[in-house]
Structures
1.
Amino acid sequence: MKSLKSRHAAAIMIVAATAAQACAQVKDNAGAYVWYDGGRPRQVQVDKSLVAEFGGRDEAGSEPVARGNGVRVWRQQDQAASRAVATGKSSPVFRDSEGGAMRALPGNVIVRLDPSWSDEQVAAWLAQNGLTEIRRLPIGRNVLVLASPPGLAALELANRLQQSGQVVSAQPEWWEQRSTR
Amino acid sequence: MAKLLTLKTAALCMLLAGCGGGGDSSSRSAGPDQAPATTPAPTADLAPPAQQQVAAPDPLYGRQWHLKNTGQSAANGASATAGEDLNVEPVWNSCGDSGACKGEGISIAVVDRGVETGHQDLRQNVSASLFNRVYSLSGAAANGDPTPAGTDADAAHGTAVAGIAAARDNNGLGGRGVAPRASLLAYALLQASTSSNEADAMTYQAANISVSNNSWGPPDGTGQLVDSGSLWQDAVAAGLQNGRNGLGTIYVWAAGNGYDSGAQDLSNYDGYANYRGVIAVGAVNAQGRQASYSEPGANVWVAAPGGEVCQAGLGITTTDLSGVAGRNTGGSADELADPDYTQCMDGTSAATPAVSGVVALMLQANPTLGWRDVRAVLAQSARQNDPAGASWRTNGAGHRVSDAYGFGMVNAEAAVNAARIFSRLPAQLTYRSPSQTVNLAIPDNSATGLGSAISVGNSGIRHIEWVDVTFSAPGHAYSGDLRILLTSPSGTEQVLAEPHFCSGRCAPYDGWRFGIGHYLDEPADGIWKISVQDLRPVDSGVFQSWQVTVYGH
């Protein structure tokens, strides 16, 4: 156990160094944004005409393009969009393809850590990386939701963790457009 | 008018012991975010006792053609075809000595936008021992009151869905659900549909959730491929493995409503509805034929009544938000006089809880069925509706199957009878082929197409339960140009994709997983063939690779 811990500590140092130095790759050569779904790279495109806002800020005089599922989507040129961005509770709107369903980054990152890690090891890894666990998901051992600001910061953190090689996988929390049928 | 009716209903309610006795279930379920202190026995959720209630007929039952189709008609002139229903009355009438044949003790979680759990026709069935769930973007999911904040038709969706599955029977109110004594839970996922919330909604209390009803998904009618993420898939896998104390929660899913759009969506473009862990449900109308909107696909397992929009046909009669809210806000010629109910619910959303209700009845008849057994029983007992329909064909194992209806319209009586005597399936085997590289250009705007074959041998699978085909043509800039056809070793042809339009541009097939249920019971070994045609001009691309994964026994 002790040797495991020390090996783990060494690994943590590497992650921390990587995390501190590297700027995560979020765009591919074609300019699309990349995220990792269970380790598999997936592309999304920014819809530059829209901004997603999270939270219940009062907004008089403007109607969003879409609302629901906890999100209001504004046109980029709307003054409401500027005010939404100023609150810090906003995100670019992404689509898997032109005309596809909307998705946005409300904040937080989901990581799958080595399921053999003990709670102590997980706690040490979080501390060394300055990460805060919000909760765990009951879909296997050591699947954690970590705190992150909304927007591209969440994508960058997820990709940085994914590219560090120290997690099984990391992805941003996505809000996705879903409908009743 | 509506207010008067509501008051009258309240007065009637006072006369009925148990109609609200025990308090508002929503407040009962609004406890702290914690699991129940003691774990209930398998699927033994304890709804309030029914014995206190004075039986009285459900006044809207006669309108519920999906339960008993007597040839009802609508004000718009549409008329139903007698017999085109779920055939559930014989199940209710077969209670026997145990007195339990209506879903008692079986829990159904309605994952939706929220449910008015205090509705007069639902509250007696809302679980007393399990927790409702609410979701937000800013914090963790929590136990709480899932009643939707909104009052529009979309806010009423979950209440309508819950009523189809399990509105209370014989209480002198409204209509009834398919499993009218089952226990309802509401998970208000669509208040905040994030990756982690979706995972939570699939797994929360799974040990005690028998059926998870999902009348939602990515937006329909766009023609776009929308995949499910690995978190959701892992969550469903966890529910199949650990749900219902190891027998597997039954995930029932709406196939989708996009067929009558310009895109002519197939259900297989939806990575939720085409996942092997869910039962995808298509919708039929009151004449027993494919509802105009219901998406066909190789993944559609069964069909159930979903109705048509009220202006064009007969909808489904079910619970609505109480008072002048929801679908029925009073005053519409199409609607019921009582605003607590609607007769205009429609969609694969409506068909799905009908199947969830039937599954609840099956699990009550035989609580030892595993999730794969439930699928098998539904397929085996389904009725071939619309027998003259062009979509029917016979697969290599002799099953009649249709892309519109799957194995047919669910038949509750046959399903329950089959469930009682069903022998559990042996352990599932999985065969995954190597990825077959093709790397050839698909002739553009040509019926010539390309073919490729994969040989499967020594899989040990003599009875296929499900097939996944992973297909890649990532450089083709408009995937809607392609027609993709799979042929099994038994020679059964199955369309996976048809040429179609998309809103915007159709995303490329880049490792897209098609789900196929229609090879049920065929052997896996032999040559699997795929044919890919680009039937439209302008965009072109390369068929890069494909892979077959077969599940069966």
Note: Confidence is low (pLDDT under 50) at residues 1-52 of chain B.
2.
Amino acid sequence: MPYPSEYRYSKEHEWVKREGANVRVGITDFAQHELGDVVYVELPKMGRKVKQHESFAVVESVKAASEVYSPVSGEVIEVNKKLDGQPELINQSPHSDGWMVVLRIDDPKEIDTLMTAAEYEKHIGGK
Amino acid sequence: MFEYIPNTPEDQREMLAQIGLSSIEELFSDIPRRVLDKFEKIGIAPMSEQEAKHLLHNIARENLNPEEFVNFLGGGLYDHYSPSVVGHLIQRSEFFTTYTPYQAELSQGTLTWMFEFQTMICELTGMDVANSSLYDGGSALAEAMLMAKNVTDKKKFLVARNLNPNYRQVLDTYAWGAGLEIQEIPFGEDGRIDKQFIRQNLADLAGVIVQNPNFFGVIEDLRELKSIIGNAMLIVSANPISLGVLAPPGTYGADIYVGEGQALGVPISFGGPLLGLFATRMSYVRKMPGRLAGRTIDINNKTGYVMALQTREQHIRRDKATSNICTNQALCALMSTIYMALLGRHGLRQLAELNLQKAHYLATKLARAKGFTLKFRSPFFNEFVIETSKKASSLLKKAQKEGFLAGIDLEPFGLLDGHHLLIAVTEKRTKAELDRLVKVLTQA
């Protein structure tokens, strides 16, 4: 699955899509592949403030339960309620329908600390 | 596996040198002197096998064997009759472990009875989902408190003062570690919790923890409690045998049911091993501690059992685990499964009725005797508090000489003074024994 060039990526395998003053966040195709079949997603409460690199969600697969770390700081203003009944969206469509939260970002400069699609592909290339 | 790994003095010297120590004493230097002194008193010094056996035998002789007494002890553990088939079945080699197998699905027999255990606990308690057991009633209650904190994201708990004081100690320990706040719900002259107090302390509430029947044996009226506390979690600890006649906690809005399962066919054996019962509503299943066996079908459409959920445990969640209970009480849970299967729905009701009737017979008779009054004028199940004109401790001493363990002196618990006895009556007690106890206590 290609990594959209307009997204930015974190070392912990989250993606970020800029939407004006907000960002949409999910986990990458590489991450869902490593996790295996996702059976449950624990999402944060609306209004929660998260810091960059802070864990804000848990993805449980048949293999393990893994933390999801926020690629940027901000406030949770939307969560993907569809994941409640269809956690498999993360496997089927990690970069679009399987998004997890929308954050109102504190500092747009944080996005610049993340990797481009080409850099991310290189980052996972060795794995 | 080696059962015993001997070390030569040379081995010991080598191992100590490796970590930079010169003696075994130095290795254990973290143990405070006052603790070591205590051990030295009972003889921690090297002994021959014969000497060690003699020492242990003498210590063991200080125990009383409840089988040699007429037993009215309760307060959390109860002297019920467990049919011998229970003891025989659990000793079958495919069952005889306290552990859940790590490669769970290989053990279809174990998963099958776990599934049945969970189903029976749900039917008994009126809850949606029960785990396959925890350690004991006290730690199950503490796990319920932690779960309520995780569900509500709040830290304040109202805890009934008439809760089993031993459970309260466990709660205090967990609350201290987790930074939770506990406020005590007082009880009134009827021995029941003060609901007005709960109404006045609803702010920032994570949960309300009550016991029913409570530590005094009194049946609480919990019908409207859930509507009073709203989104705070209602946690109810209840003796499972009492549910043969009392309303299941699920029917009056309990969010979490916990209980001590010992009464369901597990011997009292010096107070352990015990069995923690834990059940909740389906919407909270992902926050539930422990593990859950489930039934499914395989690719050939045949029924099979699986370890369906154990996501809160530390071997899955590592440092983010919300519970440190990494195993369960499989053997005790198996005992109670067999016990419940033997009794059946009607048997359990009959058993509960026998307990209730015998306890009421004794309470009525004792309350008519001079020097004894029922402490609380409230409905009770199989246990009650009697106020005594003589000191409870001296009555107990005299009764013991006559072959009776007549109850529990409530003074050490600090809830009532030394003129109160907590007396439990199970189906095992005969009318003749009850009549004799009245005689013994009134003549003491």
Note: Chain A has a mean pLDDT of 93.
